[in-house]
Design brief:
The radius of gyration is 19 Å and the shape is elongated. A 5-stranded parallel β-sheet has the order 3-2-4-1-5, sandwiched between helices. Strands 6-7-12-10-11 form a 5-stranded mixed β-sheet, sandwiched between helices. With about 260 residues, the chain is α/β, with parallel strands linked by helices. It contains 11 helices and 14 strands.
């Protein structure tokens, strides 16, 4: 059996009760930290909390060399953990399909994801979000300016009046986490007056939700990672009220539906 467990958003307590039980009763537990990370807890703390050994795999160890995971799951009860929800904005469906091809049973225990947290914290309705995108560090994508994957997603969502969730680049192995002011600075070159909302440390006891024009956000500080950026599309009156009250956004700067 191969069970995929979402760890939630912040620390060792963010996991569901079902996920906690799966980890504590597993024969082996694997995890990765390249798609996201529990910024409030190390894997050492996570291992101690659940009283298990957690074997951390890098990207190559999951996507290119999954044999140790698959071989273990063929005979034992194996758990594979990720931060957030285990199948949101990850490539782990490939690992699941590889297991299914070997007749290894699989199941998913979902965790709280940044997508739903961003909606809840900003007051923007989840069903009015379009496709999300990831803003990479400039040195990571090797091209000048903003990647088309980012600008096209923002433009297409805005044409449809939809909100955009922008995931900010994470290079956990190098200890690099893009922050909201850096993201806003990158986007302000193309969209200086575009309204955005930075969500910092979603799922923690002290999340920050702070909005304004990109040129304004570029000069603010939002504290420790992890950060997300939300770009509102057309807002219903209730959404506009929420952004004004919860994120300090000037209602006059918003597009109202």
């Amino acid at each position: 059996m191969l069970t995929f467990v979402g760890l939630g958003l912040y620390d060792e307590r963010s996991i569901t009760v079902e996920g906690r039980e799966a980890i504590r009763t597993a024969d082996r537990v694997f995890a990765e930290r390249y798609t996201s990370e529990l910024i409030g807890a190390s894997f050492e703390a996570l291992s101690a909390h659940h009283d298990v050994e957690i074997e951390v795999r890098d990207r190559a160890g999951v996507e290119q060399d999954p044999e140790p995971i698959l071989e273990a799951a063929a005979s034992d009860d194996v758990v594979f953990c990720t931060a957030g929800d285990t199948m949101i904005s990850t490539t782990h469906v490939d690992l699941r399909l590889r297991a299914e091809e070997r007749d290894v049973d699989t199941r998913i225990i979902h965790g709280v994801t940044a997508q739903t947290a961003a909606s809840g914290l900003t007051g923007l309705q989840n069903y009015r979000f379009g496709p999300s995108t990831t803003l990479p560090f400039p040195w990571a994508h090797g091209a000048d300016g903003l990647p088309a994957s980012v600008t096209d997603t923002i433009a297409e969502n805005r044409e449809r009046g939809l909100h955009t969730l922008v995931f900010l680049d994470i290079k956990a192995a190098e200890g690099e986490y893009m922050r909201g002011d850096v993201a806003a600075d990158l986007l302000s070159e193309a969209y200086p007056d575009l309204v955005g909302v930075v969500v910092a440390r979603a799922g923690s006891p002290d999340p920050v939700v702070d909005g304004g024009r990109m040129s304004e956000l570029a000069s603010r500080e939002f504290g420790d990672p992890l950060h997300l950026l939300v770009i509102p599309g057309e807002c219903h009156l209730l959404e506009a009220d929420a952004l004004a009250r919860l994120a300090g956004v000037d209602r006059e700067a918003l597009d109202l539906a």
